[in-house]
Design goal:
Strand order of the largest sheet: 1-2-6-9-8-7-5
Order of helices and strands: EEEEHEEHEEEHHHHHHHH
Structural class: alpha+beta
CATH topology of one domain: Ku70, Chain: A, Domain 2
Radius of gyration: 32 Å
Number of strands: 9
Amino acid sequence: MRSVWSGNLAFGLVSIPVKLGSAVSSHKISFRQIHLADQGRVRYQKTCELDAEVLEPSEIGRAFETPDDRLVEVSDADLQSLPLPTAKTIEVSGFVETSSIDAMQLDTPYFIAPATPAANKPYVLMREALSRSGKAAVGKFAMRNSEHLALITSRDDILLLQTLRWPDELNSSAEAAPRGSVSISDNELRLADTLIDALGEADLSEYHDEYAQAVQALVTAKLEGEEPPAPSGERGGGEVVDLMAALQASVDQARPRGGRSGAKKAPARKTAQSSKSAGSAGSAGSARSAKSASSGKSASAAKSSSSGKKAAKSPARKSTRRKAS
């Protein structure tokens, strides 16, 4: 694990040497800017606005700009010497119920790992204590020229730190709320409930970044001199004219997919195809062949009798297969 911060996790009088490592990674597609005429990469140069001189990184510093446009230079040494206990320590100052945390406050997650073998025991102690209590520790620490509010929880065999946005950084949701009075009927609510049930539970492990895959396919096609993949049909996006009709259509469309939470129903098109496959099996003697009309002609009398009994139990299915064969 690559460390992005190291210091101590202070738990009362217990000090645990720890290091932080990123708990997430990104597969975001990035592009380079190029000169269209000759494919040359576009480079950026930092220049001084006073003398237009191109500057090297070693010639560039930082400054704080005051409201009256004055600049106060602040060096790395100035920041490192700030009288902050959080510069190298995550000081736990209290605990909260994890369910009480506003999801809007959650920011970036980091793995906390013991920095030395001697830190293993107090690390495990804190992890188990948090797990038993069902609570999360709250503290502050400084990293990358900023002080962060931190939430520390027990997760499997590790401690997980999640930075939190400061409470005064959360904007009011009042401006996002619908304006005026909106009336929803019981029938609309029932259809919405039905749509939720029809769509079923979401399995987040099945989701993936289709945009990144599409860009990769586009690049591969261009490298190989092939035609880029054709776009699929557009979905939705129109204005809702009849809410009830849109809800009902959504329920009808989602019901086959909602079968994953119960018995799965094969579409009629696939049933017809499987009937043709069963008919082509002929005298192979499979149960599917015995049920089809075409296999009944080539099967033994005993199997034909068995097929007849099964057909009697589901006449609609037999009729469908006769048409398919």
